[in-house]
Design goal:
- This protein has a domain at about 30-150 and about 170-175: Jelly Rolls.
- The chain contains 3 helices and 12 strands.
- It has helices spanning about 45-50, 140-145, 160-170, and strands at about 30-35, 40-45, 55-60, 70, 75-80, 85-90, 95-100, 105-110, 115-120, 125-130, 145-150, 175.
- The chain has about 180 residues and is mainly β.
- Strand 6 and strand 7 (about 95-100) form a beta hairpin.
- The model has no long low-confidence stretch (mean pLDDT about 90).
- Pfam families: Cupin_2.
- GO terms for molecular function: quercetin 2,3-dioxygenase activity.
- InterPro entries: Cupin_2 (IPR013096), QDO-like (IPR053146), RmlC-like_jellyroll (IPR014710), RmlC_Cupin_sf (IPR011051).
């Protein structure tokens, strides 16, 4: 059984809001959100780590490219546990690369590097960690997408209204790049 807490983000969270408090979360029982066709589950965030890192999973079906974006203050890790994920990255000098990652593969995206990804197989899963001097961005998922109480992928993709893309940098370290072109496709 997982204990539930009330936080400033949710009436019922499985993650305690106070830093420095040990806790356990059963598989899939973190704070869940749907965004695009994916299920994001947050297991630890800024509240628990004094804004030093977050830990989350992203599960999704084979699908479309997640839009190009960057984090000006946050480094991001992609560790694949199921399926296959194609990671697209552009460094700060404009050099682009892409790599198909399969279970056990690891990808690192430093801050200020443009990146995107695409689930290449159904039932793919990424373990993500983000850290940096600017704090963490895990609450982006449920505020940009939609909080989810049930397990599983969304029945319909959750695509935010166009005006929400412009407001994201005001609250989270996520800047979308709608005109970015990947030359590596």
């Amino acid at each position: 059984m997982t204990i539930e807490y009330a936080t400033r983000y949710r009436q019922a969270s499985r993650i305690p809001a106070e830093p420095g408090k040990p806790y356990f979360i059963e598989k899939g029982e973190g704070d869940r959100a749907h965004l695009f066709g994916d299920l994001i589950t947050i297991y630890a965030g800024g509240e628990q780590t004094e804004n030093t890192f977050n830990f989350f999973t992203v599960e999704g079906p084979k699908g479309d490219l997640i839009p190009a974006h960057l984090h000006t203050d946050t480094h991001e890790v992609f560790y694949i546990t199921q399926g296959a994920v194609r990671l697209f990255v552009e460094d700060t000098e404009g050099n682009q690369q892409e790599k198909l990652l399969t279970p056990g593969d690891f990808g690192f995206v430093p801050k200020n590097c443009r990146h995107a990804y695409r689930m290449e197989r159904h039932h793919s899963q990424v373990v993500g960690v983000a850290a940096g001097p600017g704090g963490t961005f895990e609450r982006f998922f449920e505020n940009f997408g939609a909080p989810a109480e049930q397990l599983g992928l969304p029945h319909q993709p959750v695509v935010p209204a166009p005006h929400k893309f412009a407001s994201v940098p005001e609250q989270y370290d996520v800047r979308f790049l709608p005109d970015h072109q990947w030359r590596t496709r």
